C-alpha cells in the first residue's frame, strides 16, 4: 500500500502568512494604520493563555497590531461586556476575539452576540453562522478552524464537489460550521456525534473525514476509506514523562496506522493548528480593508 500524502499545515501557513504580511503592509501604507486585532483573555486556563500568546506573536510577525486585555477569572459579565463595547467603538481595532471557553458565571452567548458584526473575526456571531448556513448568503467572516480545514483541502487539490464528507463532532466552533462549508462546496455531508449509531461504518464511507470530537486517537485505520482525505482537528493532551510539560498532544486520529490507508492526512501538531491562527490573521486583514475603505 502507498502512504498518504502528508498535508503540511505549518508550511502552508508560512506561505499564506507571507501573502498576509504584504496585504497588512498595503493597508498600513494606504490608510496610515495597520490592521488591529483585540484579544480578550479571561481567567488563567493554561491552554487559553498559550493560544492567546501564539495569536499575538503571529500578529506581530505579519504586521498586525495587537491589543489585549487580560481579565481575572471573577470578572463580571457587565465588565467584560464593557470591554467588548469599547473595542467595538475603537477605530484602531478591526477584529475582536474573546478567547473561549469563558468562566461558567458568564453568559457566553451574550458576550459573543455583543461583538460588532464588522469585527467578528472568529465568525461566532449568530448572524455570521446563520449566513454560512444559508444558500446565497456570504458571512462577513468564516470561523478560523473550519476555514483552515477547507483551505488545506483546496491547496492540496482534494476534490470536494459531489464527494461524501463525514464530520465527526458537532461543536459550534468546528463541527457545525465545517459541515456547512463542505456542503456549500457541494459535498454530501454527514455529521456524526456522540449519539450516532455505528459511527465507524459512516466514517468508513467518507471521501473526506474531518475529525473534531476531542477523543485521543479514536479514528483507527478501519474507520477510514482507502484513499480518503483525513483532516484531524483534535488536540488532546496525553501524559508523557519525556516532555518538560509532562504531556504531549495527539489528534483524534491514530496517525501512524491511518496514514497507511488514507490518501491525505494532517499531522498533529503541524496540521490544522497553525492554519487556525493563519485564518485569523487573514480575517483580521480582510476585515481592516473592508472597514477602512
Ligand atoms: N477556543 C478554542 N478555539 C477557539 C477559537 O477559534 N476562537 C476563540 N475565540 N476561542 C477558541
Automatic annotation (TrEMBL):
Q: Which residues form the Tetrahydrofolate dehydrogenase/cyclohydrolase NAD(P)-binding domain?
A: 143-290
Domain of life, per UniProt, equals: Eukaryota
- Look up the record and name the pathway of this protein: One-carbon metabolism; tetrahydrofolate interconversion
Keyword annotations: Hydrolase, Multifunctional enzyme, NADP, One-carbon metabolism, Oxidoreductase
Which GO cellular component terms are attached?
A: cytosol
What does the function comment of this entry state?
A: Catalyzes the oxidation of 5,10-methylenetetrahydrofolate to 5,10-methenyltetrahydrofolate and then the hydrolysis of 5,10-methenyltetrahydrofolate to 10-formyltetrahydrofolate.
Family, similarity comment: Belongs to the tetrahydrofolate dehydrogenase/cyclohydrolase family.
> How does this protein assemble?
Homodimer.
Q: Quote the protein name from its UniProt record.
A: Bifunctional protein FolD 2
